[in-house]
Amino acid sequence: MIKSLHVVGVVAWFAGLFYIFRLYVYHVENSGNAHVTQVLETMERRLYYAITWPAMVFTVVMGGALLGLNPGLLRSPWFHAKLAALLFLFAYHFYSGHILKEFAKKNFKLTSKQCRLINEVPTIILLIVVPLAIMKPF
Known about the structure:
Layout (H helix, E strand, L loop, with lengths): L1 H28 L4 H36 L7 H28 L7 H7 L2 H15 L3
């Protein structure tokens, strides 16, 4: 049951991370339209704080519970690789929050093209983490 809940948390967390930079693309592209940016700011804030953050915490708690049930995972090289990839995911998560705060201040240092490229990061991490978790190589 805990593993199922962990996977549900991962899905919700990734959904938020996949979508946040897509909203940033629209935000940058509509930076001159106050009505649109106001709506996007609300969507971004709700996505980040009401969906992505709780999903991340839930995922970590369920992952910690799984680790508590099987501490031998800490001796597995595939698990070390998974944890390393997760560090990048946490960095991406917190960077998303940083950009949220910058955009709220009307500080648009990123272009829409850069936002589109950054939006691909969680896909790369997912392509690393899922095979590690399923195949348990090494």
